[in-house]
């Protein structure tokens, strides 16, 4: 093609047809410009196509991560719900039965010392967010369109950690007070050091004695009531705020990935 253009140009110059050559030269420039514009457009299409594919893959990875976080949040909710039930039972029952306590802790699906679950066990919420964090740090999160999907995604991830951490300080303070009280008032019972299994459970006699003592321990019941209130806030925030944000972000991402 280039040889043909050169031949035409040479022919026009040798015949001294300058006006025709000028028209030809302008036409050749127009063709070159059109070719460049077409090449740029094709390049833009390719870039847009690649970005769309990258956005789809990122969306799928975020969907998988959020599904994992949703499952994790459900597990945390289940543990908090059982802890709430147990503390409610302990502070509202005059004659605490060990079997009733064990029926609640056994439903967790993992072994735990009942007294520890009542006094000091704290439900931590630390979901894995590697995909989101990496995309946020390297700027690739911006390839997901439309922009408001990213905004909802940011809210879901930031809320999933911040919302519950707001209660952490209060909960830690109450647990510290419970530990101090139990150490002072129950030291003679725990000093027997009668551990019966690998998870650190106290033997039946010690456990039953402490459970019965809780029934008449007004200060401990007050501290446990305060702890129950914090648990209720945590549970409500996780179920009705955090989890719903996660579900909304999942719905939007699934629509965007189709």
Automatic annotation (TrEMBL):
Q: Which Pfam families match?
A: DUF6090
Presence of the UniProt keyword Membrane in the record = yes
Could you tell me the keywords of this UniProt record?
Membrane, Transmembrane, Transmembrane helix
Residue ranges crossing the lipid bilayer per the database entry: 21-40
**Name of the protein in question:** DUF6090 family protein
Give the originating organism: Gilvirhabdus luticola
